[in-house]
Fold:
Amino acid sequence: MRAHKHFRLRVLGTLALDTVNGEIASAEPVRPRHLAILCVLALSRRAVRRDALAAMFWGDETDAKARHSLSNALSALRAVLGRDAITARRDHLELSADLPLAVDAIEFAASCESHDDARAADLYRGPLMSDVFVQSAPDFDAWLARERGRLERAFDALCARRVPMLLRAQQWASAAALAEQWLRTSPRSTVAFTSVLRARSGPGTVAAYRAALSDFERLTRELRDQFGVHPDPVVLAVADELAARAASEELGKIPVLDPTKKPGQSLAGTRPGPVDSTGAGLPPAPDTPRRRRLSRARMSGAILLAGIVVVVGALRWNRTPRAQATDASRTIVAITSIANIRSDSSLAWLEDGLPQLITDNLSAAGGLEPVAPVRVRDVLARSNAPHTGLSSVQSLDVARRVGATWAVRGGYTGGNGAYVLDLDVREVRQGGEIESFTVMADDPVKLGQLAAARLLDIAARYHTASGEPPRFAGGTPDPEAYRHFVVGLRAASEGQFATARRELDAAIAVDSGFVEALAARRDIARGDGQASLADRLEAEIARHPDRASEWDRLTEQVQQAEFEAALPRADALSQLLVSRFPNDPRAYELRADILMNAGQFAAADTVFQHELSLDSLAIDAGDGPCAPCTAYSGLVLARLWRGDFAPAEQAARRWVSLQPAVAGAWAALAISLEFSGRLDLAIDAQRRTASLARDPAAVASLGRMMIAAHRFSDADSVIRVLRRGDASAALGAVDLEVTLARERGQFRRAVAILESTRDHAGLDLVLADNLARIGRLADARALYEFSAHQQAPRDVHALSPAQARAYAW
Structure:
């Protein structure tokens, strides 16, 4: 803007012209229509045609009268602003470049572009000229709607950046005021509404929770009366949470909400309108795909569920969070942030590596219960917090959300054989500092061991000493092996499995007895169907039992008992795993797998709900990863398998409402609708899945649903799309084409398609069934026997005869 401003035009939330002398502003008596003309000239990016301006404000008058009225308006403006304020060139009008006029809307737009969000938020006082109405001026109304929409979109983007920042900084009052203004601008914004509630409840007191509930009731009425909008299920879930907290006598013990509650029910007492099946919720954040182990029961379920687990199993989902009660007798430690102080790129891996090292050593030593680093990373990702370099306030907030009693943060430097780590330890409940310390070592692995030893020493002094020396993790003494391991783990957690394979192989090459790296690589091999490689890695792990952590030993025993079908032993071991690691969602997931394999779906449902209750990212439902979010997959599958279709659909809809940008949630809803016979709705949901996942398996599932609905021409279109894809998509096209032929009763054509396909691995049993149907029983029997008793060429585990027959059936 110009250095000297003598006039100020206020158009955001009001319409007024002020004369500014120093710090004193006095209003100019100018007619609203004339000020509206000034606003059009000020906000136009180029000169405005005189006849267009006349038509905009006097469109119902004759041309002569409209021009005369415009001339009078311009004269009135020049009388206030100066005779040279408005220049006329031929048939065009514009404000003089020398006019000392400041316009709040222009300053707002400039502040948004430069990301000066604090100033932009101060400038935006409401919609453009919200109290102005110009009679019989439809062209002006159209212009105003366009400009108002442009500025409102800029304000939305501003709020999406600034409100989370204010919340992280615990500036509750400022966050609440801005979020409420945001909600009035975008009354359908779930994130704006939840941000208001989160800000009001931020202090964490009963009074704050009640104030937030009061705001919920007030804003619900306003939105209903003024805009005809009802709260989204996500907002209702937050209100439920706050009601539960306000009602709790002890704020540290927050009741777990009933996840089977219908979307229209709210503990806050408001009856919403119909739930939008689109599940509009928070704006999408980058989706982080995860791969998880699929048990035999879930693998067979994937077949029955038409490929849903291919999509669902590759994602980790969100959940409306809740605070987690902690056991006062245990010290739970969260390593929230360890920053690379000098931004040394060669040491960047230690930002993940040191928390993992310290956590591994604390787990091995006992006495302190560490929070898994993946849970901390998930919370950071979902709350849009920086990965490292957290403030003490942010560190305490993250630790509280994962149920920790201690928050540990710090920074490191290194080089030339010397590594230095500074750590700060704080007590979460009160926020006070327990101790700060520095450790030095000649390699990162020793640095992690020394840091763990100091934390154990602090715990011994803070509580009671055990008198036993710490036992550190037997992972690897080699820093280079550990570096590859950490990079591989991070890559696997982000779905970058090619990188994960390469890095884990490099870690094993450096240290062949590195059990954690061996186990991680084995799990990926199993997911890839590389049974012989998984067996070799398994054998190598068995050669180094002394180097496995307690977690590795227990999970290995559980999985081995499950593989050997020793279900009572697997059940007992999985219960032990949960009791030993009650804050690790992976323990609940493994136990639920055991129960699902045993057909105990109701018990598995309960375990999945316990897993969900670990999600403590309070009121921050987002689209990033979270450790317990795989539980939604289990809830939907367990309920479908025991025939509880309505509760399965409720869980899926809850999911979609929380994460409308996550493909897995829509896949779960689609299969729930398909099971209940509502195929058209299921197809609509699966279309959303395919558009979000961009995965051939999701497209193939869409085609199967279309076939089930007898929409054969639509299925033909899906087949054509898949044929244009890669090898896996082409195989999906073959599968669909064969299925479609079978549905049309064309079994010989189905056989011909499969026999002419060069690579139809995975469809052998489908071929066998088709052979049987056309009378080629000997060929069908031979193929069944091959599938039942031998390993297929692609190195996958052989099926039992019963499994082979069940698959074909």
